């Protein structure tokens, strides 16, 4: 793929031909070898048998969990799923193609009738959820159109805990409809004994009515930029900026998620060292954010170029672990930096 010309201040990630060749070698070395495929362990995820029949030419034998740590797997998820072991992930973040026409650089996803999309979802979601450990958390991202199908299918296999709605300020106005600028993230757990660290995802908000008790600030601090309070995060997120050209995390991926959004999910629902699984990895936001936050990852993406972008982002993360909008263990308001 050729990289488009960029304006000087445009920070969108680019790959030179030399980088592309070097990273392609790194990516190939990350793919499971035939030797590793012989280390079969544990049962295959439920639902895998049917998928296996549907994909008789699946390229891999079932993999051992230790061969999945910190891997970007450049595969078609539906071929790979029968080869993934059950219960290897502590946290699963799923950002599948929504029910929209979308061109993922050559691979087109076509909008379907609602019931066909629900059937497509039912073909892989059980297998993906079977990759999660007992007590793992699962987040499933979508828009209003696929949200209903997500709730119905998720409820069959996991305990639904909440639905987060986040405001994405990017979006086209419509002449005969309301402009769509929100998305949902379904939060579910496998069973009851799940981990949730609310202290890790506290939100810094500007205080509009600074109340004092005995002359002293009540639950807020005076800072150089004004008065702020730390609040518990709600299920309505209005502090997220969608990646754009002047942000260093930006790539040319058409539906890239912000690192700040993924950071909230990882910090709330995993511990350092845990394994985060993302079956539709795109530009690698989950892998990169997991690395920045000291978690391991396993991601799957069918587009080779996207995997190379993810690898370059991982290399950049070695030198710069910062996440825009997250500072000193606290999430800042939108555009606060
Ligand atoms: C909504 S995007 C994910 C974006 C990602 N969260 C990010 O931040 O870049 C969905 C991704 O799934 C990939 N995809 C679609 N079908 C796939 C399949 N069968 N196997 C693997 N990847 C697939 C697409 O190429 C696309 O990059």
Structure description:
With 337 residues, this protein is of the alpha/beta class. It has a single domain, classed as Vaccinia Virus protein VP39 (Rossmann fold). 28% of the residues lie in helices and 22% in strands. The longest helix is centred in the middle third of the chain and has 16 residues. It starts with 16 loop residues before the first helix and ends in a 6-residue tail after the last strand. About 7% of the residues have low confidence.
In short:
This protein is α/β, with parallel strands linked by helices and 337 residues long. It has one domain (17-207, 233-331): 3-Layer(aba) Sandwich (Rossmann fold), CATH 3.40.50.150.
Give the key terms.
337 residues; alpha/beta; Rossmann fold; 8-stranded mixed beta sheet; 3-stranded antiparallel beta sheet
Topology record:
Elements: H1 17-30, H2 34-37, H3 48-54, E1 71-73, H4 77-80, E2 89-94, E3 102-104, E4 107-109, H5 114-129, E5 132-142, H6 144-157, E6 159-167, E7 182-189, E8 203-206, E9 212-213, E10 216-217, E11 221-223, E12 226-231, E13 236-237, H7 259-269, E14 275-278, H8 285-292, E15 296-300, H9 304-319, E16 326-327, E17 330-331
Parallel strand pairs: 1-15, 2-5, 2-14, 6-13, 14-15
Antiparallel strand pairs: 3-4, 5-7, 6-7, 8-12, 9-10, 11-12, 16-17
Helix pairs in contact: 1-9, 5-6, 7-8, 8-9
Bound molecules: S-adenosylmethionine.
């Amino acid at each position: 793929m050729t990289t488009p010309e960029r304006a000087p201040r445009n920070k969108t990630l680019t790959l030179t031909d030399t980088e592309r060749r070097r990273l392609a070698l790194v990516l190939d070395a990350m793919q499971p070898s035939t030797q590793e495929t012989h280390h079969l362990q544990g049962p295959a995820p439920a639902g895998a048998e049917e998928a296996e029949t549907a994909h008789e030419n699946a390229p891999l034998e079932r993999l051992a969990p230790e061969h999945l740590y910190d891997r970007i797997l450049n595969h078609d998820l539906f071929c790979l799923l029968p080869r993934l072991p059950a219960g290897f992930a502590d946290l699963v973040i799923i950002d599948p193609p929504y029910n929209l026409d979308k061109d993922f650089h050559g691979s087109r996803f076509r909008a379907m009738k609602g019931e066909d999309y629900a059937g497509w979802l039912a073909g892989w979601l059980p297998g993906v959820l079977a990759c999660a450990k007992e007590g793992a958390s699962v987040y499933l991202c979508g828009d209003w159109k696929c949200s209903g199908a997500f709730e119905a299918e998720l409820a069959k296999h996991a305990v639904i805990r909440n639905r987060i709605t986040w405001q994405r300020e990017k979006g086209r106005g419509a002449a005969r409809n309301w402009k769509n600028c929100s998305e949902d993230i379904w939060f579910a757990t496998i069973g009851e004994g799940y981990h949730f660290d609310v202290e890790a995802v506290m939100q810094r908000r500007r205080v509009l009515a600074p109340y004092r008790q005995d002359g002293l600030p009540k639950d807020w601090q005076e800072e150089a930029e004004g008065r702020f309070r730390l609040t518990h995060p709600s299920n309505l997120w209005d502090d997220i900026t969608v990646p754009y050209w002047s942000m260093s995390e930006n790539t040319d991926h058409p539906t890239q998620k912000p690192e700040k959004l993924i950071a909230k999910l990882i910090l709330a629902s995993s511990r350092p060292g845990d394994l985060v699984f993302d079956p539709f990895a795109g530009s690698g936001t989950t892998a990169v954010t997991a690395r920045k936050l000291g978690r391991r990852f396993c991601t799957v993406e069918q587009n080779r170029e996207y995997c190379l972008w993810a690898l370059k982002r991982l290399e950049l993360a070695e030198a710069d672990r910062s996440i825009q909008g997250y500072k000193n263990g606290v999430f800042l308001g939108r555009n606060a930096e």
